[in-house]
Structure formats: C-alpha cells, structure tokens
Fold:
Amino acid sequence: MSDAIKMKEAHFPGRAPIDAYGNGGFRFADMSHRGSIVCVPSGIYGIEMKAPVPEMADMQHILDEADKIEVLLVGTGENLLRLPQNLRTLLHNKHISADTMSTGAAVRTFNVLLAEDRAVAAIFYAVE
Structure:
C-alpha cells in the first residue's frame, strides 16, 4: 500500500446556485472553493484558469456535456473580456450561445437561469 496522498479533483455532484463570490473563490451548496470553477449539468468542478479568459484546456467539462448545454456564461473577473475567436467558433458549432461578462454579473445571471431550469453552464474566474 502506498503512503502517497492522492488528490481528487474538486467536484460537487449536482447543480447549485452560487451563494457568494470574492476573496479568490466561491460559496455554493454549503461549501466553499478557492479558485475558479466551471458549472455544468453534472456538477461544479474546480479548475486551474491561468487568466480571466478561458483557454481550450479550461473548456473540457463544457465540451464533454455540450449536448446538454444551450447557454454558456463566462465570468471574466472584474472586467468584461472577449472570448478568443477559436472558442467562439467551437461553441457556435456546438450550438452553444456564449456570453462573457464580469464574474459578478455572470454569477447573478447563472443563478437566474438555473432557477428557470435552463440548460445553462458557466465558467467563473475567481476574483479577490
């Protein structure tokens, strides 16, 4: 038996509204997570985003569940930033409407769409 500690990917299995954001993380479902997150139909996952705009590697959970997603909200930190053309094209080809906005606005919009039981997903860049 190995003495090595195995780290599991941070994951909440299910859909939940975001209760709070800031201080470098998020609160949801009576839990907290430090860092950025992606919310898809199968759950909420912690991700290591290098910058406020997602890269292709940050999109894996979205692509894995693309057939269950109609709207993708992208919270780009404190400022509104645009998705790169390659990601906009990829999402368009998957029939996913992508909207970028500040993380705060994206969290609020996500919670409304989730309450309406819409096919929504989100990537939120953590803000201090």
Remarks:
- Strands lie at 11-12, 18-22, 25-28, 31-34, 36-40, 43-47, 71-75, 97-101, 120-124.
- The mean pLDDT is 92.
- The longest strand covers residues 18-22.
- The chain has one domain: 11-124.
